[in-house]
Amino acid sequence: MFRLTVQYETPADPAAFDEQYFGKHVPLCANIPGLQSTTFSKPKVAGPGTAPYLVAELDFEDEAAFKAAMGSPEMGAVAKDADTLPAGRVMFIGELSDN
User: Fold this and answer.
1) Interatomic CA distance for residues 93 and 62, integer angstroms
2) pTM of the predicted model as reported, rounded to 2 decimal places
């Protein structure tokens, strides 16, 4: 399994962010080819540091499926929409470990 993780900073207007994110952005993600599952969470701090506002995890069968999805028109539409979201973001990719 190969995962794309996106962490969003706390937006100035969380309600407006949620409306745009879950109302428009997430439905676009549903069309990404090869996407096997998604999870969304709003983590709370459990120790030192700060938590992101929102974490999205998008899972693909393997790195090849992820790379194919990244080159798709559907992912292009998702990326274009992501640029309009009113919060900064950091993205990570990696293969999930069996351990």
Assistant:
1) 11
2) 0.91
Reference 26, options 90, 85, 87, 94; nearest CA is: 85
Mean residue pLDDT of the chain comes to 95
Outline where 1-99 has alpha helix (H). 14-20, 26-29, 63-70, 73-82
Cα distance between residue 6 and residue 57, in whole Å: 7
Q: d(Cα 60, Cα 21) in Å, to the nearest integer? A: 21
DSSP conformational letter for 86: S
What is the token pair recorded at 15?
Answer: 């309600």
Task: Over range 21-39, report the average pLDDT.
Answer: 96
Note the pLDDT of residue 43. 95
Neighbouring C-beta atoms of residue 18, cutoff 10 Å: 14
